[in-house]
Amino acid sequence: MSDQPRAEALGPSATRRDRPLPLRQMGIGELIDAAVRLYRLEWKVLMAIVAFVVVPVTFLEVWASQVLIGSIGPATPSSDAFGQLLALTLGLVAVQFLIVQPFLVAAVARAAADIYLGEPVTIGGTYRYALRRSPSILWITILTALATLLGFILLIIPGIIVLVRLTFASAALVVEGHRGSTALRRSWRLTKGFFWRTLGTLLLSGVIAAIVSGIISIPGELAVQALGPDAWPISALVSVLGTVLVTPFGMLVVVLLYFDLRIRKEGFDIEVMARELASAP
Question: Side-chain half-sphere of 133: how many Cα atoms within 13 Å?
Fold first, then answer.
């Protein structure tokens, strides 16, 4: 599909398949179930989209940390060791925040929206889209972080409210083409009157993801306890597996929530059906 706003590109096409789910309002349990169903439908491509980025980055991070820690001997001043570790940590955090996360958010959000709307999903096409949209996603992330930080500075509760109300800014960019503050305002309007429902769904999906991640992390922790630092490849592999499995599920929930709000507040389902009927032979 072209890089135009997705709301303008919703019409039948030669490559479109049947939508895997009907366009309708869903309860919280139905949303979680729908996310699982969509995940099972396209789990290979979703996991591959995340894995091709996460696997090399994670192994490089763990390897660099192990090399630095191993190079610090007893003769190394503790202040120098701390400075090196701090510099490495800050560098890795910067890479994750500025490059990896915006790319993954754009890629997985695009794939999730395509799956829900019945569009074909390819790794190459998704990555090309993510490369173009990563700067916009990063800007949205920075704006969201600043707004949330301001809310937490004022009081903790306003920070939580802001974070939840701006959850769908990335989806608004991917589906409708909104950028920057426009995407934030779009998310804020969509969540008006649905704060508690949005928060409850996100918390439930977060608990599910945390449980899955916790179960997956057990072998890595046992390996580290038994083998010590030499078990770092196992620990990195387990960490990668958890991220690859959980990331698509979380984004699917966000995208489904976004479309559910549009259906409830804007009649998105009726709009799509009207376009399809109008263009039908």
Answer: 34
